[in-house]
Design brief:
Distance between the termini: 14 Å
Largest sheet: 4 strands, antiparallel
Structural class: alpha+beta
Low-confidence stretches: none
């Protein structure tokens, strides 16, 4: 579902509940896309650069929650980035 949002690309999940999403396709700087996620969509995330080199364009989402909550978060992301469509 995240990959359907223009500019966002979720890395394949491999036995984890942590989703790594690449925002480089948005053309935004980290401050702008992070503000849309945290302030507009109201989703708490971990910033990729915290985990080292190469994570600068990524945000990490914790999916260890009911499916309905994850779907709500995806819907909020779609709305927050709807101008890119």
């Amino acid at each position: 579902a995240i990959n359907a949002i223009p500019g966002l690309k979720s890395m394949p999940l491999e036995a984890t509940y942590l989703a790594w999403v690449d925002f480089s396709g948005t053309g935004m700087d980290a401050a702008e896309y992070t503000a849309r996620v945290e302030k507009t969509a109201k989703i708490a995330v971990n910033h990729g650069e915290t985990f080292g080199t190469g994570g600068e364009t990524f945000l990490r989402f914790n999916l260890a929650t009911p499916r309905a909550v994850v779907q709500e978060a995806v819907d909020r992301l779609k709305e927050a980035f709807s101008d890119l469509q």
